[in-house]
Amino acid sequence: MERHAVWEFTDDRGHVAAAGDVPLRVVAYIQAGATLWDHGIRPVGIFGSFHDGDAADPAKAGTLPLGEVRYLGSGADLGLEAVLAAEPDLVVAVTYGGGQVYGVDPDVAKHLEEHVPVVVVDVGQGRSLTAVRERFAGLARSLGARDRDGTELERAMRDLEQAAQDNPGRVLALSPGGPDSVHLARPAKWPDLSALTALGVRTVEPPQGPGANWNTAGWAQAAALTPDIVLVDSRANAAAHEQYAANPHWLQVAAGARLLPWNPELPASESAHARFFAQVTGALRDT
């Protein structure tokens, strides 16, 4: 007798993931895993991207307890066998558009879906922070999570909006590239930075040039933008501070601005977004 699915979820590719029972064993990309954790769902395994190494990047993990969740690998080192060995009922991944599963070899992703349901959530530039957050909230509800009341996030948004009115500091987001280069974020291409702009924060737009999400430039160009607050990519794949610490233009940036760590792959939960907004609020009030 054919068993009908009791759990279904249509992902951002338009694919329907289905299972005979509500999935309990979830393997997820680290950003998705951190998001589900904030909803009270503990993944049995997480994986990284082609930018990651043989250990989970704590900057991406949010409040996810990395010591308690199995890390399955990243990029080319993430094989089908490693994922299936965790015995998942569901795999949750992300995409930056086009439906391609981010951080997973296309051949691995293809064969993975032959063994286990896969849900892919679009976190790319075409989505607002609210839309991404609501998609993950819907997925979490389908897995048994309770809705959050939203009070913390609403308060954080009001506080940020007021701080932006009272303290019009200019916010630049960047990812260090090395001793002589830096990637300057285009605010409209990042859901979290776009959300800051929508709340009245004066986000800094880098010069026109190649690169959809970033303008890759020298540290002199970053200094010339004279930001009051700098969001500095804190992920492991960004250049380490010691690589550019002696650059005179970086020193100029650091002397003139409040520096905040920034995770461009922010967990898509109310609590993570509230923390991000509160961090920027505090920096604005200190300018």
Automatic annotation (TrEMBL):
SUPFAM superfamilies cross-referenced by the UniProt entry: Helical backbone' metal receptor
Tree of life domain: Bacteria
Predominant cellular place of this UniProt entry's protein: other
InterPro entries: ABC_transptr_periplasmic_BD, Bact_iron-sidero_bind
Keyword vocabulary terms for this entry: Signal, Transport
Annotated Fe/B12 periplasmic-binding domain residues: 68-256
Cellular location(s): Cell envelope
PANTHER family: FERRIC ENTEROBACTIN-BINDING PERIPLASMIC PROTEIN FEPB (PTHR30532:SF24), IRON III DICITRATE-BINDING PERIPLASMIC PROTEIN (PTHR30532)
Family label: Belongs to the bacterial solute-binding protein 8 family.
Descriptive protein name: ABC transporter substrate-binding protein
Gene source species: Streptomyces aureus
